[in-house]
Design a protein that fits this description.
Blueprint: H1 2-23, E1 36-43, E2 45-61, E3 66-70, E4 75-80, E5 87-88, E6 93-99, H2 101-129, H3 135-160, E7 163-165, E8 170-175, E9 182-183, E10 188-194, E11 198-204, H4 206-209, E12 217-222, E13 229-232, E14 235-237, E15 247-252, E16 264-281, E17 286-288, E18 291-298, E19 301-306, E20 308-313, E21 316-321, E22 328-332, E23 342-345
Parallel strand pairs: 1-23
Antiparallel strand pairs: 1-22, 2-11, 2-16, 3-10, 4-6, 4-9, 5-8, 6-7, 8-10, 11-15, 12-13, 12-16, 14-15, 16-21, 17-18, 18-19, 20-21
Length: 346
């Protein structure tokens, strides 16, 4: 009986010991580590800025840069020697024409009328010598002969001009007809853009155009990524294009620019000092559905600040709202950040 009592007393103690032993086991769970982003920083600064406007446009022929080749008489296009886009030299054949049936009749009639008028003049002069015609008759016959001869010469010149040649070196810009088409007299058959008279044409907001002056430098880059060139504004047309709603800026291109009419261009122009303003490195600016923002780092943590961005000034951009002078903004690594994320500086 005594042994049973001792077992009963020790049983609760064993249970307590077993429970307490389980509570003392070590916890192997690992707490998550907060991500840390590697970034580079720039500084928000207050200072003078120069407003830069980005321009987009194309190369076009200058005021005297487009040469038009017209049909000297009604003719049929028999051959296109140099298609559109071909570089041609001065005097090189571009399009060959042949007289139309109507033109052939006109040529023959003009030649026949000239022969008849010359004979009439000779007859009037003989009659005058015989006293059978007056001086007035002779002068009338002379005038008729001169008119008929002039028309015949003009027709011969037109016949000789049915080979349309480039009056200067350039690029064939357009050909209005196909082989076999009838080209009426005086109509344009082909146009050539001269290589020595090209200009850049940029569209620009009318408000911005009012701040640009003739002679202001434009930094131009071609679409093919060639070396940038700097030219001066040649003229400004403030009249707004009804389709683009933009004014126009023109600048003459150097002959050795290696550009061709129709090539697209981009440019940048400084419109002058805009006074003092807050600026941040342009690389810091991010966009979220049209809302510009930057990440400002303080105490090793990046915080998103929605901002109001303004004009660019070199490699910086004006920030009208959302930051203060001295703020450190993320310039590299910002696309991988989230608001409140810890950062490490490169």
């Amino acid at each position: 009986m005594a042994a049973l009592t001792r077992l009963t007393v020790f049983a609760p103690l064993l249970l307590v010991t077993a429970c307490s032993g389980g509570a003392d086991q070590p916890d192997n769970t690992v707490a998550p580590v907060a991500p840390v982003a590697l970034v580079a920083l720039g500084t928000v600064e207050q200072g003078p800025v120069t407003s830069t406007v980005n321009l987009y446009g194309a190369v076009e022929a200058g005021p005297s840069g487009t040469l038009t080749l017209t049909s000297p008489a009604e003719a049929i296009v028999s051959r296109i020697v140099t298609p559109v886009g071909t570089h041609v030299g001065e005097g090189q054949a571009v399009v060959l024409l042949t007289p139309s049936p109507t033109t052939r009749v006109d040529f023959a009639k003009a030649a026949s009328d000239a022969v008849a008028a010359d004979k009439a003049l000779a007859r009037a002069q003989r009659l005058r010598g015989d006293g059978l015609a007056s001086d007035a008759d002779v002068e009338a016959a002379r005038a008729a002969a001169q008119s008929a001869d002039a028309l015949a010469r003009s027709m011969r010149a037109r016949a000789g001009g049915l080979t349309l040649r480039a009056p200067a070196a350039g690029v064939v810009q357009a050909i209005a007809n196909r082989v076999g088409d009838l080209a009426p007299a005086g109509t344009s058959v082909a146009t050539i853009a001269r290589l020595d008279d090209l200009r850049a044409h940029f569209g620009v907001d009318p408000d911005v155009a009012r701040d640009i002056r003739v002679g202001t430098p434009i930094h131009i880059t071609a679409s093919d990524g060639g070396a940038p060139i700097e030219v001066a504004v040649q003229s400004i047309d403030p009249v707004v294009d009804p389709q683009t709603r933009l004014a126009s800026i023109y600048a003459r291109l150097p002959d050795n620019a290696g550009l061709a009419a129709g090539e697209t261009l981009s440019g940048a122009i400084d419109t002058g000092s805009g006074g003092k303003a807050l600026t941040a490195p342009y690389a810091a600016l991010l966009d979220d559905g049209g809302q510009p923002y930057v990440f400002v780092v303080a105490g090793g943590v990046a915080h998103r600040h929605d901002v109001q961005a303004g004009a660019t000034s070199g490699d910086r951009i004006v920030i009208a709202k959302g930051v203060k002078p001295g703020d450190k903004v993320v310039t590299q690594g910002g696309t991988a950040l989230e608001d409140g994320m810890k950062v490490r500086i490169r």
